[in-house]
Amino acid sequence: MALLQRPDACLTIAFEHLVSLLLAEQSQLFIVQIGAFDGQTGDQIHDYIKKYGWRGVLVEPQPRYFERLVSTYAGVEGLHLHNVAVADKRESRTLYAVREDLTGLPSWAPQTASFDRYQLEHHGFDDDVIEHYDVQCVPLCELLADINCVDILQVDVEGFDAEIIRMFDFDVFRPRIVRFESAHLSRSDHNLAIKRLVGYGYQVAVTGMDTIGWHP
Alpha-carbon distance 190 to 12, whole Å? Predict the structure, then answer.
């Protein structure tokens, strides 16, 4: 094929392109963001929330960064911020994260927190760098119990992304855009997540670190 010989000529769809399509229909959108961190660092949704007043549910389990998330969106109406993690049931689980009192670490290090210690080790962090603490988990269905519509589902939870896609009730909600970080997933987990989206009528593109689903 010609494109195999010229991969630089391949056209790929970006998250921003799909958002533009939605904004052409309506500016007020409802988002669900699992793994919101501080609401700014590497966050492709932040500017849209600020500019268009998007409403939504934002979830971040790390207390220190949840405080910054609250500060980021202080005064923004229509946002429901939750300092919890998402799991199948209400329970306490161990979250592994990079210690905050260390210097000389990459700027992205705090964003590698995960239920899976291997995810941090895979990034090259050892016992001297990793800390752990318990976080409260809540089922996704409970967080969305009073929600009527979801336009965008954004997931970035360091290797747990496929589980969030599995838990999300696509029979109740059908977000026009689903984006999740897939770079840290096993091939089988990534494949299952894609199959779930395709089964619900999504068109899917894998772009860099992420996988994007679009429901026409």
Answer: 19
